[in-house]
Protein 1
Amino acid sequence: MTNQLAVVTGGSRGLGFETAKALRALNFDLVLIGKDVARLQSAQSELEKISSPDSTLTSYICD
């Protein structure tokens, strides 16, 4: 089965981060978008802990 892809804006904190966690638990491939480099790196590290090896996680800094 092919993974589904989700783009999560504001994925480094709050509702965006919680949404990303829920989607990650469902084995979605994720693209996180955030403004703060440190927060985005932290969120990505946390999400990698709960992800499966079959899914991907990418993050982008946007303003």
Protein 2
Amino acid sequence: MLKINSTGKIIAAKRLNIRSDAKRVEPPIAVVEAGTELTYYGYTEEGEPIDGNSKWYFTKKGTWFWSGGVAQPVKETNK
């Protein structure tokens, strides 16, 4: 899976599962509530597609969350 390095912050648009990989077969290891600000360190366009959207963000800890559950990035800085 190709990872794109890009650091930024987003807001969870709804309750969001945090997973160990970019696919739903992985059980959630954490859940964040809508309105929670999350920092991401990159993304992939090759995660499991949900409703036609295969973009998933990854965190500093190496966990993943689906981009369809977030609002537009608050701030993004490509590295």
Protein 3
Amino acid sequence: MKAKDLDKKFDEGKDISKYFDLSKMRHPKKEQQQNYLGPETLRARQNDF
């Protein structure tokens, strides 16, 4: 399907989710996030309570 046709269906309010393979969906921002829990972070968290 061409992008123009997909846009038209979307603008008409039709369900276009069937045109996408959601099983391969990713969240790039979440993949980039890293939580560092080093000693400094743990001490800071303990002081918050």
